[in-house]
Write a structure and sequence with these properties.
The complex is a heterodimer. Chain A is mainly α. Chain A contains 13 helices and no strands. Classes of the chains: A mainly alpha, B alpha/beta.
C-alpha cells in the first residue's frame, strides 16, 4: 500500500475553513462594505428611533398643548406653525414618531409571532393542521384588508390595543404564507427527518431545526411588512378610525391639515405643512427598504460578478 | 468538419494554465499551471478527487470560466486560436458549434418547456450548420446511434417524459448535433444506476468513435474512465500528477497518489458468520399512498454483522429502511427487533426503541442542520436520550470525535466548514452518541471520493469490531459490498431476489437479475465494456 494511504488522516482533509470572526467583527466588516443606500437607511432609522425614545426631551411643547392661535404660520416660536386647534406641529411630529412607529413595530412583531408559528406548524404537519390554517388564511385574504380592518375597527372600537391586534391578525396571513412556503423546503431536509427519528417534539423541530434556516427571508419580510403596517395605520388614521386624538400621529396629522394645501399659492410654507408628516412616513419607508434590500442581497448568497 | 483535419493532429493545446477562484474575499489558485494536449479523435480521461480542478480545467478547455473565476496565466490554443485572449462575444461563435458540453445532471440541464428535438438541434440551426428539416433528420440518426427507443419520435417528448439515462443520451446527441471538434463530458454517468451506466457508456463511446470526435471525459470513477479514454490524466490540488496511455496507466501507475487511487478497491472484509438475528423483517408489504413498493420482504440481520442491501434506484432499498425506522408504517408483516415486534408507527415507539436503532444518511450535507455546530449536532442525542448535560456532554462529544478520528478542534465548526468525509464522520458520531445497537447506513459513501470512501468504510469496520454494532448497509456499489458486507440481500422492484452470505451471493450461478447487476459493475480493464457488449449480444 502506498505512502499516501498510510499518512491519510481525517483531520487533514481540507474543508472550507472560514476565518473565525466574532459577531462584532462581522458586523463591523459588513458595515464597512455596505453600500451608501444602506448606510443612509440605517442612519435614518437610528434617527427615528432616537427621536421616538427622546420625544419628551426634544419636543419644545407638549403633545396636546393648545395655543390660542390656530393655523399659525412657521415662526421661531412654532417651528412648523400650529394646527387647526392651535397645537405645535413640530412637537406633534416628534411625538408622532413615538406613537406611529411604536404601534407599527408592536403590530409587526405580533403578526410575525402569529403568522410565523402557525406557518411553521402547518409546514411540519402537512395534513389537517395545514389544511385548517391554510384555508382559513385563504378566506381572510379574500377580503380586501383595509376594508376588513375598517369594518372590524368600527365593530370593536378604535382603541390602540384593538388597532394592533386587528392589523396584526390581518397581516399575519401574509406572514403565514411566506413562512409556510419557505419552511416547506426545509422540512423535507434529512436533518429534520433525523430530528423526528430521534423523537424530538414539534416545538424543538420548529425552533431549533427549521427557524434558524428560514430566518433571512423572514427578516427581510419583517422590514417590508413593517412598511405596510406603517402605511395601513397611517391610512386608517387618515380615514379617522386609526389612532385617536389627542394622540399625535402622522396619518391623522396629514388629514387634519390637508386643507392647508390650497393655501400653497399664497404661502408656500403653509402648503408644505400637511406634507411634512407624509414626508416623514415616506422617508422611513424608503430607509427601511434600502436596508432590507441590502440585507436580502447579503443573504441571497449571490456572488458579485468580479 | 473540415476535410483537411486529420486524425492525430493536435486540436487542443493548453500550456501553463492558471485559474483563480474568488471566495472568502480572497483569490485562491484552482489550477496551478497545467499543460494538456489533445489530438483529434482522442479521448482524454481527467480523474481526481473533488476539488482537484477537473471541471474547472474541462470548462477552461472551452475557454470558459465559471462566475467568480478568472484565468491568470497560460494559453489555451484550440485549432491554432488562443481562447484565453478572446472575448465572450467571440467565444459564443465556438460554443455549441465547434465545441460542446455534456453536463453531469441531464435532468437539471434541459429546459422543461421545450421538446427534446428542439433542444437537440437548436445550436446547429442557429449557427446555420444545417437547415431545420435536415437537422431534425440528423437528430433521428443520432438518437438511433445512441440506442434510444423509437428514435424518430422520442424527440417530440418533453424532458420529464423520458428516463434519466435516456436524457443523458439525448444530451450526448445534442452535443454531437453540430458535429463539434471537441466534446467535454463532465461526469455524465455519475448520477445513473450501474445497469443504465453501461448502456450510456457504450453508446457514448460508439458515437465518439464513429464521428472521430476529440473528447475530454471528466470523472472520479477509474473503472469508467478505463472504458472511455485513450489517455488518462490524473489531477490533484489543481496540478497534474501524471499522464499516460490508459493501458499503461492501469498496468503501472508511477506516482504514489495514482497507486493509492488504484488500490482503494482492494479493501475486503473477512466474512463473519453469526446465527442469532437482532433484526428480522417478516413478510413486509409497504405502499406510498396507493402505489405498492414493497412485496413480502423477508430479511434477517444477524447480530454484530453487516448486511448489505443492493439494488438499483427504485428497488425498494431505502423504503425498507423507512419501514424499519417507523417513518413509513408497513401495510403487512412485522419488524422484529431483538425478539420484540416494533410498533409500526414512529410515534408509538418508546424513546429506548428509537435510541437503539440509528440511521446515517447518504448526503451528509443535508443530514446536518447548517446552523448548528458540531458540538450541538453530536451533543443533542446525548442530552436527549441519555440526559448527559453540561461539561459531561462536551467531554463525551470530544470522546466521540476522537473515536471518529477527529479532535476537539472541530467542536465549534459548522457543517459548511467541513470536508465531505468529515461531514459523514460527524453523522456517524451523531449516530454513535445514542449508544445504538443497530445502524442503518443509507448509501453513506456514494457521495464521496474513493480515498475518503475507503477511510469511512475502515472506520465503520473498526467501530463494528470495537462496539459490536450491527449494520444494515444500503448501497448500489458492488465494490463497497465486497469491502464491508457479511451478508448480501439483492432487491429488485420491491422484492428480495437473492439473500445469503457474501460468498454465496457472489458465487455463480446467479438469478438473472443478480447476474445483470454484477456484470454491469465496471471493472478496471479497458476491454471490459467491449467484452461485456460482445457477451450480451451473443
Amino acid at each position: 500500500m502506498s505512502e499516501d494511504i498510510q499518512t491519510y488522516s481525517a483531520t487533514a482533509e481540507s474543508g472550507n475553513v472560514h476565518e473565525r470572526r466574532s459577531r462584532w467583527a462581522k458586523i463591523k466588516l459588513a458595515a464597512r462594505k455596505s453600500p451608501y443606500t444602506a448606510r443612509f437607511g440605517i442612519t435614518v432609522i437610528l434617527t427615528y428611533v432616537l427621536v421616538a425614545l427622546l420625544a419628551p426631551l426634544l419636543a419644545p411643547y407638549g403633545e396636546a398643548q393648545v395655543f390660542p392661535a390656530p393655523y399659525e404660520p412657521w415662526s421661531s416660536t412654532h417651528f412648523f406653525g400650529t394646527d387647526q386647534i392651535g397645537r405645535d406641529i413640530f412637537s406633534r411630529m416628534i411625538y408622532g414618531a413615538r406613537n406611529t412607529v411604536g404601534i407599527a413595530v408592536a403590530t409587526t412583531l405580533l403578526s410575525f409571532l402569529i403568522g410565523g408559528s402557525l406557518g411553521l406548524a402547518a409546514a411540519i404537519d402537512r395534513r389537517w393542521i395545514d389544511q385548517i390554517f391554510s384555508r382559513s388564511v385563504d378566506v381572510l385574504m379574500a377580503i380586501p384588508s383595509l376594508i376588513f380592518a375598517l369594518v372590524l375597527l368600527s365593530i370593536f372600537g378604535s382603541t390602540v390595543l384593538n388597532l394592533i391586534i386587528i392589523i396584526a391578525v390581518l397581516d399575519a396571513t401574509r406572514v403565514f404564507r411566506l413562512t409556510r412556503s419557505v419552511a416547506v423546503n426545509v422540512v423535507v431536509m434529512d436533518y429534520v427527518e433525523a430530528a423526528k427519528l430521534r423523537g424530538e417534539g414539534l416545538g424543538w423541530v420548529m425552533r431549533r431545526e427549521i427557524l434558524p434556516n428560514i430566518l433571512p427571508p423572514l427578516i427581510a419580510e419583517f422590514g417590508l411588512r413593517f412598511c405596510f403596517v406603517f402605511l395601513t395605520i397611517a391610512a386608517l388614521s387618515f380615514l379617522g378610525v386609526g389612532i385617536q386624538p389627542p394622540t399625535a400621529d402622522w396619518g391623522s396629522m396629514v388629514r387634519e391639515n390637508a386643507n392647508l394645501l390650497q393655501f400653497a399659492q399664497y404661502d408656500l410654507r403653509a402648503g408644505l405643512t400637511p406634507l411634512l408628516p407624509a414626508a416623514a412616513i415616506a422617508l422611513l419607508t424608503v430607509a427601511v427598504n434600502f436596508v432590507v434590500d441590502w440585507f436580502l442581497h447579503k443573504t441571497s448568497g449571490l456572488r458579485d460578478e468580479q | 468538419m473540415s476535410n483537411k483535419a486529420q486524425k492525430g493532429d493536435v486540436l487542443l493545446d493548453i500550456k501553463g494554465l492558471e485559474i483563480e477562484g474568488f471566495s472568502d474575499e480572497k483569490w485562491h489558485e484552482i489550477i496551478k499551471g497545467v499543460d494538456l494536449t489533445l489530438r483529434r479523435g482522442e479521448v482524454m480521461g481527467l480523474i481526481g478527487e473533488s476539488g482537484a480542478g477537473k471541471s474547472t480545467l474541462g470548462l477552461a478547455a472551452m475557454g470558459y470560466t465559471q462566475p467568480g473565476c478568472r484565468i491568470t496565466g497560460g494559453s489555451i490554443s484550440f485549432d491554432g486560436i488562443d481562447l484565453a485572449q478572446m472575448s465572450d462575444e467571440q467565444m459564443r461563435g465556438y460554443w455549441g458549434n465547434r465545441m460542446t458540453y455534456v453536463a453531469q445532471s441531464a435532468a437539471a440541464s434541459f429546459n422543461p418547456a421545450h421538446r427534446l428535438i428542439e433542444q437537440t438541434t437548436s445550436s446547429t440551426i442557429r449557427f446555420g450548420i444545417k437547415e431545420k428539416a435536415e437537422a431534425h433528420k440528423d437528430a433521428h440518426v443520432l438518437y438511433a446511434a445512441l440506442n434510444l427507443p423509437d428514435p424518430t419520435n422520442i424527440g417530440d417528448r418533453y424532458p420529464h417524459q423520458v428516463s434519466g439515462g435516456q436524457l443523458q443520451r439525448v444530451m450526448t446527441a445534442m452535443a454531437m448535433s453540430p458535429r463539434p471538434d471537441l466534446i467535454i463530458f463532465d461526469e455524465p454517468t455519475t448520477a445513473l444506476d450501474v445497469t443504465t451506466q453501461v448502456e450510456v457508456l457504450s453508446s457514448m463511446r460508439a458515437i465518439v468513435e464513429e464521428f472521430n470526435t476529440a473528447a475530454i471525459y471528466i470523472t472520479h470513477d477509474l473503472a469508467v474512465v478505463a472504458q472511455m479514454a485513450d489517455v488518462i490524466k490524473v489531477l490533484r490540488y489543481g496540478e497534474e500528477v501524471e499522464e499516460a496511455a490508459t493501458r499503461q496507466m492501469l498496468k503501472s501507475p508511477k506516482q504514489d497518489y495514482t497507486k493509492s487511487l488504484w488500490s482503494v478497491r482492494a479493501l475486503q472484509k473477512e466474512e463473519h458468520t453469526a446465527t442469532d438475528s437482532i433484526m428480522s423483517l417478516r413478510g413486509i408489504d409497504a405502499a406510498y399512498g396507493t402505489a405498492k413498493v414493497l412485496f413480502d420482504v423477508d430479511i434477517d440481520v444477524p447480530k454484530g454483522s453487516t448486511v448489505a442491501v443492493v439494488g438499483e434506484s427504485g428497488s425498494g432499498k431505502s423504503t425498507t429502511a423507512r419501514v424499519i425506522t417507523g417513518l413509513l408504517p408497513q401495510s403487512a408483516g412485522s419488524v422484529v427487533f431483538d425478539g420484540d415486534a416494533l410498533p409500526e408507527r414512529l410515534a408509538d415507539r418508546t424513546k429506548e426503541q428509537k435510541r437503539r436503532i440509528q440511521m446515517i444518511y447518504q448526503m451528509a450535507d443535508t443530514a446536518m442542520n447548517p446552523r448548528q455546530t458540531v458540538r450541538d449536532i453530536i451533543g443533542r442525542p446525548l442530552e436527549f436520550y441519555l440526559g448527559v448535560r453540561g461539561k459531561a456532554n462536551t467531554e463525551r462529544v470530544i470522546e466521540l470525535l476522537e473515536m471518529i478520528e477527529l479532535n476537539a478542534d472541530f467542536l465549534e465548526r459548522l457543517p459548511a466548514e467541513l470536508s465531505g468525509g468529515q461531514k459523514q464522520r460527524i453523522c456517524i458520531a451523531r449516530a454513535l452518541a445514542a449508544n445504538p445497537e443497530f445502524i442503518i447506513c443509507d448509501e453513506v459513501t456514494s457521495a464521496l471520493d474513493q480515498i475518503v470512501q475507503e477511510g469511512i468504510l475502515k472506520l465503520l469496520l473498526r467501530l463494528q469490531s470495537e462496539l459490536g454494532l450491527t449494520y444494515m448497509f444500503i448501497t448500489h456499489d458492488i465494490s463497497t459490498v465486497k469491502a464491508i458486507a457479511d451478508q448480501v440481500v439483492v432487491m429488485n422492484e420491491g422484492r428480495v431476489v437473492e439473500q445469503g452470505s457474501k460468498t454465496e451471493v457472489f458465487q455463480p450461478p446467479h438469478p438473472a437479475y443478480t447476474e445483470l447487476l454484477l456484470s454491469s459493475v465496471p471493472e478496471m480493464d479497458p476491454d471490459w465494456l467491449t467484452n461485456l457488449n460482445a457477451a450480451r449480444n451473443r
